[in-house]
């Protein structure tokens, strides 16, 4: 949740100031605490999250060996809560594209080529240039928008569900659910805005 | 009203079942659902066919025996009721009604709509009790002060009748609302504290052993529960389990 928020905040800078976006991106890409401590923790967290999600789905499917001939799931639960595996799978597929677009080239440049300067041949920072270049193709923008819709659907259930799972159901739950819904809609919508902004302003 | 019924028929626990269509006529809207089933069975017996086996006992929403999955919902389309409290006025003349047994690997079908819910009993046996020495000098329960709030919450949890609608409604066949209610009714009271750690660990272990799925917080169980058992009980069980695990 915090990672998504900071990712969104930094991306949003690209809308207002290319220079500030470049400076913050360079800091995030070279500061050792981010690169060598927080990044591995995040990668482990993401892998653990989706592996456990698949394990949970397989175990839960085994718990009902014969399906109902007629099941009215919509009568008692939301679509999001019943389809976390599919919204999650869509986000995972998107992450493949996102890593191909940004993370793998970044790791290659910094840790394989060994260029930690963050600069292009002309001496300017490369981050804003690379970001804008990626959103030129309409097909990529469409895929990003679809992925963020799935992210919103995933978070709409996942945010409050996470608190319930660790036993946090109390007087703050109602407020937390409201905050979770706002977060689940605003953050993905913000990412969609950024993608569309760069597509229309490249 | 005249109805078409699509009912799961299964000769015994080993036989392969299938949906079979039946017609029933002149059903009164004032009948309970089980009375409608009685009419069907009378019809079947009169025509020399095997009547549909289904569980029922008190027929007033107390025992939790009547376990039917009606038109895609446990205990049918009404809220806060068991199948025996469901009335035919919830349906329209000419409707087709699908009737299936509660589905879960831990609730195997015995015959037609009858399922074996002994898994719930075994979970109860694993810890759903308090041990009290009744040798003659037992402390009077009324002498232990309990806040009204805690007493009300414990009573709410204790209203679970163990019908299994939570398991049947859950897409994961999770029994966590049932176990959560049974853990909570003791966790909220001072009498339940002595065995609290072992209770939650043993009941959860038995729940897993029975082959129930895991809760993913869809909330379907709470909506379909005839006694309105709240999801707060699952959260409380999770807290109790986490705390018990940390205590070792």
The coarse silhouette of chain A is elongated
Count of the separate structural domains of chain A: 1
Q: Could you say what the CATH architecture of the largest domain in chain B is?
A: Orthogonal Bundle
Identify low-pLDDT runs of chain A.
Answer: none
Percentage of residues in helical conformation of chain B: 25-40%
Shape of chain B: elongated
Tally of DSSP β-strands of chain A: 0
The percent range for strand residues of chain A is under 5%
Q: Topology of this protein?
A:
The complex is a heterodimer of chains A (202) and B (248).
Chain A: H1 2-16, H2 18-30, H3 32-62, H4 79-82, H5 84-113, H6 127-134, H7 138-165, H8 173-200
Chain B: E1 3-9, E2 18-24, H1 33-46, E3 68-70, E4 73-74, E5 96-101, E6 109-111, E7 114-115, H2 118-125, H3 148-158, H4 165-169, H5 176-187, H6 196-210, H7 220-224, H8 232-247
Parallel strand pairs in B: 1-5
Antiparallel strand pairs in B: 1-2, 3-4, 3-5, 6-7
Helix pairs in contact in B: 2-6, 3-5, 5-6, 5-8, 6-8
Structure description:
- The complex is a heterodimer of chains A (202) and B (248).
- With 202 residues, chain A is mainly alpha-helical.
- Chain A has one domain.
- Chain A has 8 helices and no strands.
- Chain B has 248 residues and is α+β, with helices and mostly antiparallel strands.
- Chain B folds into 2 domains: 3-111, Beta-grasp domain (Ubiquitin-like (UB roll), Roll); 117-133 and 143-247, Fumarate Reductase Iron-sulfur Protein, Chain B, domain 2 (Orthogonal Bundle).
- Helices cover 35% and strands 12% of the residues of chain B.
- Chain B contains 8 helices and 7 strands, in the order E-E-H-E-E-E-E-E-H-H-H-H-H-H-H.
- In chain B, helix 5 (176-187) packs across helix 8.
- Chain B starts with a strand and ends with a helix.
- The relative contact order of chain B is 0.14.
- At the A-B interface, helix 3 and helix 7 of A face helix 7 and helix 8 of B.
């Amino acid at each position: 949740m915090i990672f998504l928020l900071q990712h969104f905040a930094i991306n949003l800078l690209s809308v207002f100031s290319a220079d500030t976006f470049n400076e913050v991106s360079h800091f995030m890409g070279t500061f050792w605490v981010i690169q060598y401590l927080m990044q591995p923790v995040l990668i482990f967290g993401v892998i653990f999250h989706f592996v456990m999600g698949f394990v949970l789905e397989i175990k839960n499917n085994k718990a009902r060996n014969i399906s109902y001939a007629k099941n009215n799931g919509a009568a008692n639960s939301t679509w999001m809560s019943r389809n976390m595996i599919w919204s999650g799978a869509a986000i995972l597929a998107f992450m493949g594209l996102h890593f191909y677009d940004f993370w793998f080239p970044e790791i290659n440049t910094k840790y394989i080529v060994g260029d930690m300067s963050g600069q292009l041949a002309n001496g300017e920072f490369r981050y804003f240039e690379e970001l804008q270049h990626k959103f030129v193709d309409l097909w990529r923008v469409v895929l990003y928008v679809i992925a963020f819709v799935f992210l919103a659907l995933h978070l709409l259930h996942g945010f409050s569900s996470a608190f319930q799972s660790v036993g946090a159901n109390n007087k703050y739950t109602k407020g937390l659910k409201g905050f979770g819904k706002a977060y689940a809609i605003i953050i993905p919508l913000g990412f969609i805005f950024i993608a569309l902004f760069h597509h229309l302003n490249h | 009203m005249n109805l078409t019924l699509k009912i799961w028929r299964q000769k015994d626990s080993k036989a392969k079942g299938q949906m079979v269509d039946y017609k029933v006529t002149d059903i009164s809207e004032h009948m309970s659902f089980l009375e409608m089933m009685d009419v069907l069975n009378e019809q079947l017996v009169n025509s020399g066919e095997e009547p549909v086996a289904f569980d029922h006992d008190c027929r007033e929403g107390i025992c939790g025996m009547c376990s039917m999955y009606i038109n895609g919902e446990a205990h049918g389309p009404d809220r806060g009721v068991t199948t025996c409290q469901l009335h035919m006025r919830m349906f329209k003349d000419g409707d087709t009604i699908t009737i299936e047994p509660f589905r879960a690997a831990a609730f195997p079908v015995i015959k037609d709509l009858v399922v074996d819910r002994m898994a719930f009993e075994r979970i109860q046996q694993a810890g759903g009790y308090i041990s009290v020495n009744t040798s003659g000098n037992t402390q009077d329960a009324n002498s232990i002060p309990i806040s009204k709030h805690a007493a009300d919450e414990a009573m709410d949890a204790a209203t679970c009748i163990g019908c299994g609608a939570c398991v049947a409604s859950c897409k994961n066949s999770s029994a966590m609302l049932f176990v959560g209610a049974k853990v909570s009714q003791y966790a909220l009271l001072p009498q339940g504290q002595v065995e609290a750690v072992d209770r939650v660990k043993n009941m959860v272990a038995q729940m897993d052993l029975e082959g129930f799925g895991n809760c993913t917080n869809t909330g379907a169980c709470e909506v379909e529960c005839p006694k309105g058992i709240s999801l707060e009980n699952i959260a409380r069980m999770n807290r109790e389990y986490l705390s018990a695990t940390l205590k070792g």
